[in-house]
């Protein structure tokens, strides 16, 4: 049996931009991507703490150490600059493997999205 479990989570980051006219996705600072073990093109679920919106999109690599968290395309309508969001990805794995699996959990500074 396989189950879906949380693989990666960036907990409570501040949205730095929303670009409605860009192809749909979320741009994430490369430093945060590396810390959370996310790759470009990976599907992620977004939860907006400010308004309760929940949606899926995919990751685009942002500039390293920029703090960039930008929602692009239609997803830009679900956030406002300054909103706090949670970014999660999931993985399918064997039930027994999942019992031992430890996800990558990242808790950035909400003020500037840094890891320090």
Automatic annotation (TrEMBL):
The keyword Cytoplasm applies. GO terms for biological process: alanine biosynthetic process; pantothenate biosynthetic process. It catalyses: L-aspartate + H(+) = beta-alanine + CO2. It is found in: Cytoplasm. Coiled coil: none annotated. Its EC number is 4.1.1.11. GO terms for cellular component: cytosol. Substrate binds at residues 57, 73-75. Is synthesized initially as an inactive proenzyme, which is activated by self-cleavage at a specific serine bond to produce a beta-subunit with a hydroxyl group at its C-terminus and an alpha-subunit with a pyruvoyl group at its N-terminus. It comes from the Bacteria. Its cofactor is pyruvate. It holds the Pfam family Asp_decarbox. Keywords: Autocatalytic cleavage, Cytoplasm, Decarboxylase, Lyase, Pantothenate biosynthesis, Pyruvate, Schiff base, Zymogen. The active site is at 25 (schiff-base intermediate with substrate), 58 (proton donor). GO terms for molecular function: aspartate 1-decarboxylase activity. The modification Pyruvic acid (Ser) is found at residue 25. Heterooctamer of four alpha and four beta subunits. Catalyzes the pyruvoyl-dependent decarboxylation of aspartate to produce beta-alanine. This is Aspartate 1-decarboxylase. The lineage of its organism: Bacteria, Pseudomonadati, Bacteroidota, Flavobacteriia, Flavobacteriales. The gene is panD.
